[in-house]
Amino acid sequence: MILVYFSFHYHFFLFYLLSLSFFFFCPLISLASLVMRQRKQGGPSPNQGPKGNREATLGNTYASSRKRGFFVATALFLVFLSFMVAMKWSVKEEVVFSAQDIARLEVAVDQVENETAISKLEELVNTVVPLSCVAEKLLQKFMHAANEEDHRELDDLAKRYHALPALLTSVSRAGDALYTRLKGMLLKEPDALLAGVPRFLPRSFFRYMAATLYIQSVVLPDYHLHRTENTDEHVRALVRARNLLQWSENIQNENFFNWTSSVCHRAFEGVASAHWVKFCESSLTSPTVTEIRTAAVLEELIALDSSYAPFRIHYASTLSLLDSPKVDRTTALSVIRRQKESLTKRQYKQVEPFYIALLDILEAFVTPLNLIEYELTQRVERAMIHLNSCSRLREPFSQGNTSIVWPGRRALKGEARAPLFLVEQVNLVADKLSLVFSDDQRASLERLRNCTA
Hints:
Number of domains: 3
Radius of gyration: 33 Å
């Protein structure tokens, strides 16, 4: 794969040095020319005659030559500057990939699908990362031209990058293969490839996670939004991204989230684009940024289907449990109350039995202690009873119940659904509510502690 860039800054700096050389060397050239001319004409040389005359002659010559050198350098600089401005508007940045790149990616995908060696997974990741960066860069070009309604540019891009659909198809296949392998590792499925990778090879696993997330939450959504307009595939990619983000927080290895953002620079150094590195830094460098990215993915899902209730309850849960100064608890509280209002107006579809009960629990969690009223604690206690020892809450998240995991979404049939709460998050909610519950009510909190799906 070849990335060809016209670097205006590099050429600008190079020619500026050339201009400065004229500034310093023109006086010397002029002085040498004067000496040779005087010798040829038989006149006095600067080395002859009184010392004062010789120094005066040399001084005047050097000053005038330096002045001429300055003007020559300035003129050359202005000419080159004009040339570079013209070049900037006439020369286009080229991103080149070959059919061999796509073929190599296809081979890597086939190997991961048919073999279980970790080396094949490593090879696929190393192959797909630079190509996914190229695909995203080209998608951005098409999106920019479309937003500007530049039909001529769109036609030109379509001609120059006619192989882009084939590249995106291969990147999509790679994303599917990587997601399947990572899902097996994270959920410790019986036939998973090296189920111990998340614990024993955290740095390698980080690379796999970052590469897959970039495909599922950036490249494929842009592809389906602006090229195929396939909403079902768009939703599927984002659901998978959300699952990976949620499952990653459940890895019992502090090293996975115990690094600085520099790990993103080192993961695919010299290969990944600046956009990839920025995405990595804002997605996988700490539990907090992971939760923020999860909320952003859920916002995209809601934008695609604003009336689908399961997306809404996941968003309310993520926002309520998000521990970040960037998100005020009042924001989560307003989201919960708006969802309750929409439920009373029947504005959502596929509302699950536990929806209202969970909203009551989340409302109590995000409400400041001094503002929690007795009526709210009563509603939370009724919510515990309604959950019926959490059986209703667990059912949709069971891997065996593929028909009800994502109710009413045929396109998501068979897709996993990460739970609403992690164990640590459930304990946080229960600890908060125990401070305001009576002794009789605290017994019901044990039901909540069991809701770890």
